[in-house]
Design goal:
The structure is a single chain. The termini are far apart. This protein has helices at 80-98, 200-208, 269-283, 323-329, 334-353, 416-431, 434-440, 451-455, 461-467, 472-485, 496-501; strands at 9-17, 20-27, 30-35, 42-45, 49-55, 61-66, 72-75, 225-227, 239-240, 244-250, 256-262, 293-300, 310-316, 321-322, 366-368, 374-376. The longest helix has 20 residues, at 334-353. The protein is of the alpha+beta class and 502 residues long. Strand 10 and strand 11 (256-262) form a beta hairpin. It has 3 domains: 3-100, PH-domain like; 138-319, no CATH class; 321-501, Transferase(Phosphotransferase) domain 1 (Transferase(Phosphotransferase), domain 1, Orthogonal Bundle), CATH 1.10.510.10.
């Protein structure tokens, strides 16, 4: 170690390695273990430290993983968790300062293997083994770990209507200017991840140790702060669903961002989000009801899978209320409800002109700002012309979708049915506010009509109450809905402009 070690001292303790007792010291230069017996000193330079983990079930030991080989060094120390976290943080800061990209290093293998005992000289490299293949049903995992391998990809499966809990709180942000997707350099020699995908609980643990979990390529992560959800004591997550979990961070620019971590995988996620970002940047940069986002193929690692970085989305944080909460707050203000409804239809019409469909318009994917501005969030099911001929990646909230919608239902007019349902419901609530309490019943995944109503509209109690109003627009919209249910999900006769004209 360098002679100036005293000036770079970080931590020290008595420890046992290879059956010998001695002193373990962490400095800015690295780790040093000096046996009391006077035998050979073990030194691990800071730039060689890939990560620190705790291994073993009965006899737990601090394990130091080393870059460019399969070497692992084991130390028995007290307060193992503090040592693990401190070493991982120190190594991460070193890489950040020197601009070292861990992805360019040789894959160290699977940390889950049983390594050889510690030796004064690191053992020769062993052939890395790929992680075990995950069962189809595997879904969740969590926090920090080391070197990224080729980033896994996620595929958003179908979204369950009741899966988005807790709901994301109000949000606010600057005008959206979507930027091309950023992804970290890939090492084609590294194996693709094939194990179980992280769960919301896994990511929750990662955000408890953010600086050791986020890929340094995302920016000045040492200056990031995680914002806890005040509505869920002790938890960081703001919203969760079938696709992933949402967290809130304050970045180095002092702005707030939403970070979405995926709990499902697919081989097309990276390509999909690259195309979405590029298309929105080129064709929808002036649509201020959309949200700026950036996709990172290698974004966050978890403690269960410390050798891999998983993808994430970083987007501007939007302050406001979900549509359902907004209705609850303004149920006695018909003018406000009508105004919001018209603005939504105009937004959907703008999307269609650009060849875009949101794909999942619903109560929790529509955010209303403090000034009544509309922001559409969650682009997992979005359609752009690049996806023509492909299957939809999700089916949307069932209580907002045409009952005949399938995976083949994927085109720019996909939002027609959802927009009609929302507009009709808001106009009905403006006329009969008592319908909200009776037919919504605090359900965040619908308004006042549900899929069961669409399947038997003539015997729907809620629809029958709507049609008893004297409002001619509501009656015409009701007739349009009946006609629409007898047609296909992509009927062009119910475009947002057609709906507005009634």
């Amino acid at each position: 170690m360098a002679d100036n070690r005293a000036f770079s001292y970080i931590k020290g303790t008595s420890a046992v390695a290879n059956g010998e007792r001695g002193n373990l010291v962490l400095t800015a230069e690295g780790l040093e273990f000096k046996p009391d017996s006077g035998s050979k000193i073990i030194t691990i330079p800071i730039e060689k430290i890939m990560d620190a983990t705790i291994q073993g079930t009965i006899r737990k030991r601090l394990c130091i993983l080393v870059y460019d080989s399969n070497a692992r060094y084991y130390f028995s120390v007290s307060d193992q968790e503090t040592w693990r976290d401190t070493i991982s943080l120190a190594a991460g800061i070193y890489r950040k300062i020197l601009g070292i990209n861990p992805g360019s290093r040789k894959n160290p293998g699977n940390p889950g293997q049983n390594p050889a005992p510690v030796k004064a000289q690191p053992p020769p490299p062993a052939t890395p083994t790929q992680p075990p293949k995950a069962p189809p049903s595997a879904q969740k995992t969590t926090p920090p770990g080391p070197t990224p391998s080729k980033a896994p990809t996620t595929n958003p499966p179908q979204k369950s209507p009741s899966s988005a809990k807790p709901q994301a709180p109000p949000q606010k942000s600057p005008p959206p200017q979507t930027q091309p997707v950023a992804s970290t350099p890939q090492n084609t020699l590294k194996p693709a991840y094939t194990g179980p995908w992280p769960s919301g609980q896994d990511y929750e643990q990662s955000f408890q140790m953010l600086r050791m979990s986020i890929n340094p390529s995302l920016g000045k992560i040492d200056q990031w702060e995680v914002v806890k959800n005040s509505k869920t004591t002790g938890w960081y997550v703001y919203a969760s669903g079938n696709y992933g979990s949402i967290y809130k961070i304050k970045a180095d620019d002092s702005k707030y961002y939403a970070v979405k971590c995926f709990t499902r995988k697919s081989g097309s996620l990276n390509d999909r989000y690259m195309k979405i970002s590029n298309y929105l940047s080129a064709k929808a940069s002036n649509m201020d009801f959309l949200v700026h986002f950036r996709y990172y193929e290698e974004g966050i690692k978890t403690r269960k899978n410390p050798a891999f970085f998983f993808p994430l989305l970083k987007m501007e944080w939007i302050d406001g209320m979900t549509l359902n909460n907004f209705i609850q707050m303004n149920i006695g203000s018909p003018k406000i409800l009508k105004s919001i409804s018209e603005n939504l239809l105009l937004s959907v019409s703008s999307l269609q002109k650009a060849g875009i469909a949101h794909g999942d318009l619903s109560g929790d994917n529509i955010i209303i700002g403090k000034k009544g501005e509309i922001r559409l969030v969650d682009y997992d099911g979005i359609y752009i012309p690049d996806f023509k001929g492909q299957r939809a990646t999700e089916m949307g909230h069932a209580d907002f979708q045409h009952p005949k919608r399938t995976g083949e239902t994927f085109a720019s007019n996909l939002d027609n049915f959802s927009a009609l349902i929302i507009h009709l419901s808001l106009l009905a609530l403006a006329e009969k506010p008592e319908m909200w309490e009776k037919y919504n019943q605090n359900d965040p995944d619908c308004l006042i009509l549900r899929k069961k109503d669409f399947l038997d509209i003539n015997n729907s109690e809620a629809f029958g109450v709507m049609m008893k109003t004297r409002n001619k627009s509501i009656k015409r919209l009701g007739a349009m809905l009946e006609d629409y249910l007898g047609r296909g999900p992509l009927w062009e006769g119910a475009s947002p402009r057609d709906v507005l004209s009634l």
